[in-house]
């Protein structure tokens, strides 16, 4: 630290010019950052579920859908049918929409003197009420259409847009949203949610980040009572944020729902290092000149800043082991931002302090009320450490009992409140049409063999009987309708063909009518068939139940059956969230222990600081379990923040304890001195961090609100445990008397 302080005092201008130049460079790169919300981007390209998902798209066409619903008293009225027809034509012309299936263009297999043909169910709009009533009865009595293109009560219609897998689904969704502006028309589906989420998150964060800045500025001003005490920490985090976003832009990375909170995290957390440096500097400058004050400041708290920064970096880097691509990127770039904030705090703030005017009375570091509270905490902890330990462990343990109740949820619909348009559209389609996300089953075998067709039919019937999906559709339904059409619509012939040759003849007739019609149901060599069903419940519990039933059903089929679809990706992502959380927790705790042990040269320090952060993180996860808050693409970040940031407080407290011990204080007195001397900065830091994250309570997205409150909850416990449980454990563990305290690595 002595060498660093001398370098700063000798070349402050060169340091400031270099930082300015690099900030301009990275600022240009930051302009290249874009936003993505595509769930596939969370998976590595070689993930088995992604391969299966892409394979079905390559074989049968698109697996991503946009659902557009129209609502009214009766969709069979002339005005409603005209709207549906207009929407069908309008949406069909949008680039990236492969086909639209609606009430006014859905196909019907019709018998003809020469066989069968595919034609429109509705060749022209009804001209009077009698024709409309006849059409209504015809549609609602046929379960191939009722519950598919029209609700069973006739009050809603559904337009299913199949998207071109080669096009950007979000860009297509943008075009769809621009094309529909009528009242009573709702759009939903994963592409729509992705589009709305990207736009809304940009608006949300552009509103929240200024609030974070204002609140932290207020906390800093109340703490330092001078302008530079506010500006210098903020300049530090602004620089680190620009450098981080610039690095993302220059490396071609995108913002996602997961890492979109990263700027707010850097702004909130990066202030901590500046607070500790300025707090000590204002004390030192009362007694020494600026150069000497900087030297003393870095000697006193520089090591603690390095320790805190290094452990925070380790906490975020633990995410790099996750199977989720965006989680790895979040961990890496947030760690990079923290590293920059730490380095800038250590060199930029001292360099600026050599030029700016120092407040005559110094900073008001220890407000009377806070100093008295800290003094009282120190006295109680020193007098009754065992009681403090018991109370703290009971509190953490009670909360941690909720961990088994914790669940994971990767559904994007949870990003929207129940009262918002996206959620209303989702619930509307879910209630009347069995949902907007599809389950895809690919059956392999001699598809046209009667026994295989009957097996597929049985599989469909049993799947529908579970009540977990809408009516499954496959080549079996097509063949049954052809068979019936060839027998004058006699329902007795609504059955699979009796032979393979007959099935092949039926399909040949359809191919002559429309060569592309069968491609979505069966491969050209008839070796694979597709079963598709809309899923009613995409919650974690619903999907777990669904796939358990599907596995049981497909296990009875003699051939190979592959399960895929958007719902399978959602389920896989939820599993990856849980696995990644466990891995990052274990790795993060190990990394924190090793780093603190190395930096403090103390096994005691490593163990105690790791124990504290483990307790506060466990308390938070338990609280989530008790309150029913699930791990999702945003709240999954809590563990890395809890470990990486929560340990800062205990590291600073333990560093203060070591400093007092080296001055000759015995254990209890040293722990009490650490509370008094470091407690003020810990409280100020925690207040700024908690206040910054509580701003997320004003977000329009539930996961961001949960994220803000839970991180604040974690930080409160981490700071409280550092000021009470840590010194109590130190005192209780050192009752035997004094012992030699080694210097840390950087001291």
Write the layout of secondary structure elements.
Blueprint (H helix, E strand, L loop, with lengths): L1 H9 L1 H19 L17 H13 L4 E7 L6 H15 L4 E5 L5 E6 L2 E6 L8 H12 L15 E8 L5 H11 L5 E4 L1 H35 L2 H24 L11 H23 L5 H28 L7 H29 L14 H16 L1 H16 L20 H13 L4 E7 L5 H16 L9 H11 L14 H14 L14 E7 L5 H16 L5 E4 L1 H35 L2 H25 L10 H25 L4 H28 L7 H22 L1 H9 L14
Antiparallel strand pairs: 1-5, 1-6, 2-5, 3-4, 7-8, 7-9
Helix pairs in contact: 1-10, 2-8, 2-11, 6-7, 7-8, 7-9, 7-22, 8-9, 8-11, 9-10, 9-11, 9-22, 10-11, 10-19, 10-21, 12-22, 13-20, 13-24, 19-20, 19-21, 20-21, 20-23, 20-24, 21-22, 21-23, 22-23, 22-24
Which terms would index this structure?
single chain; 747 residues; alpha+beta; Multidrug efflux transporter AcrB transmembrane fold; Alpha-Beta Plaits; four-stranded antiparallel β-sheet; three-stranded antiparallel β-sheet; 24 helices; elongated; disordered C terminus
């Amino acid at each position: 630290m002595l060498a660093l302080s001398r370098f700063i005092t000798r070349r402050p201008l060169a340091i400031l010019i270099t930082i300015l130049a690099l900030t301009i460079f990275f600022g240009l790169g930051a302009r290249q950052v874009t936003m993505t919300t595509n769930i596939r981007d969370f998976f590595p390209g070689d993930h088995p579920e992604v391969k299966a998902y892409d394979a079905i798209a390559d074989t049968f066409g698109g697996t991503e859908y946009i659902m557009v619903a129209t609502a009214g008293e009766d969709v069979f009225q002339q005005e409603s049918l005209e709207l549906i027809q207009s929407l069908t034509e309008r949406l069909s012309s949008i680039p990236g929409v492969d086909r639209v299936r609606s009430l006014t263009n859905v196909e019907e297999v019709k018998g003809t003197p020469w066989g069968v043909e595919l034609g429109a169910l509705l060749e022209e709009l009804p001209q009077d009420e009698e024709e409309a009533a006849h059409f209504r009865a015809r549609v609602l009595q046929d379960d191939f259409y009722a519950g598919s293109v029209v609700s069973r009560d006739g009050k809603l219609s559904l337009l299913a847009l199949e998207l071109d897998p080669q096009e950007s689904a979000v860009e297509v969704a943008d075009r769809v949203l621009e094309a529909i502006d009528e009242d009573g028309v709702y759009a939903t589906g994963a592409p729509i949610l992705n589009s709305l989420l990207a736009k809304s998150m940009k608006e949300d964060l552009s509103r929240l980040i200024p609030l974070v800045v204002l609140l932290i500025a207020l906390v800093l001003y109340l703490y330092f009572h001078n302008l530079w005490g506010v500006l210098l920490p903020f300049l530090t985090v602004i620089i680190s944020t620009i450098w981080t976003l610039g690095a993302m832009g220059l490396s071609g990375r995108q913002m996602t729902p997961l890492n979109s909170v990263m700027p707010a995290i850097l702004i909130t957390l990066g202030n901590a290092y500046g607070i500790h440096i300025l707090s000590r500097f204002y004390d030192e400058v009362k007694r020494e000149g600026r150069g000497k004050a900087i030297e003393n400041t870095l000697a006193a708290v520089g090591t603690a800043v390095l320790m805190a920064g290094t452990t925070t970096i380790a906490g975020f880097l633990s995410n790099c082991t996750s199977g989720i691509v965006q989680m790895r990127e979040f961990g890496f770039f947030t760690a990079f931002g923290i590293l920059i904030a730490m380095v800038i705090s250590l060199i930029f703030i001292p360099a600026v302090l050599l030029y700016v005017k120092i407040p005559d009375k110094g900073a008001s570091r220890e407000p009377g009320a806070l100093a008295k509270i800290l003094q009282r905490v120190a006295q109680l902890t020193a007098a009754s450490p065992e009681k403090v330990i018991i109370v703290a462990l009971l509190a953490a343990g009670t909360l941690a009992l909720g961990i088994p109740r914790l669940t994971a949820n990767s559904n994007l619909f949870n990003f929207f409140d129940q009262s918002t348009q996206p959620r209303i559209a989702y619930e509307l389609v879910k209630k009347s049409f069995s949902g907007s996300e599809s389950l895809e089953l690919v059956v392999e075998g001699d598809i046209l063999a009667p026994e295989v067709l009957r097996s597929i039919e049985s599989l469909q019937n049993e799947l529908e009987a579970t009540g977990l999906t809408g009516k499954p559709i496959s080549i079996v339904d097509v063949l049954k309708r052809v068979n019936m059409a060839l027998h004058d619509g006699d329902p007795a012939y609504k059955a699979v063909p009796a032979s393979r040759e007959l099935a092949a003849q039926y399909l040949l007739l359809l191919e002559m009518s429309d060569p592309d019609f069968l491609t979505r149901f069966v491969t050209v060599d008839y070796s694979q068939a597709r079963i598709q069903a809309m899923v009613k419940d995409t919650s974690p519990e619903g999907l777990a139940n669904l796939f358990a039933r599907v596995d049981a059903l497909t296990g009875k089929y003699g051939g190979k059956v592959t399960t895929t679809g958007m719902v399978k990706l959602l389920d896989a992502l939820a599993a990856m969230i849980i696995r990644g959380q466990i891995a990052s927790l274990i790795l993060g705790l190990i990394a924190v222990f090793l780093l603190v042990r190395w930096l403090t040269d103390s096994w005691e320090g490593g163990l105690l600081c790791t124990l504290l952060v483990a307790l506060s993180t466990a308390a938070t996860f338990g609280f989530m379990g008790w309150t029913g808050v699930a791990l999702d693409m945003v709240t999954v970040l809590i563990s890395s923040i809890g470990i990486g940031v929560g340990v800062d407080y205990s590291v600073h407290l333990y560093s203060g304890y070591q400093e007092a011990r080296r001055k000759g204080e015995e254990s209890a007195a040293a722990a009490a001195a650490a509370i008094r001397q470091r407690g003020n900065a810990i409280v100020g830091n925690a207040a700024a961090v908690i206040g910054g994250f509580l701003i997320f309570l004003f977000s329009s997205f539930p996961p961001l609100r949960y994220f803000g409150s839970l991180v604040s909850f974690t930080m409160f416990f981490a700071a409280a445990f550092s000021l009470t449980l840590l010194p109590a454990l130190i005192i209780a563990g050192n009752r035997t008397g004094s012992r030699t305290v080694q210097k840390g690595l950087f001291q």
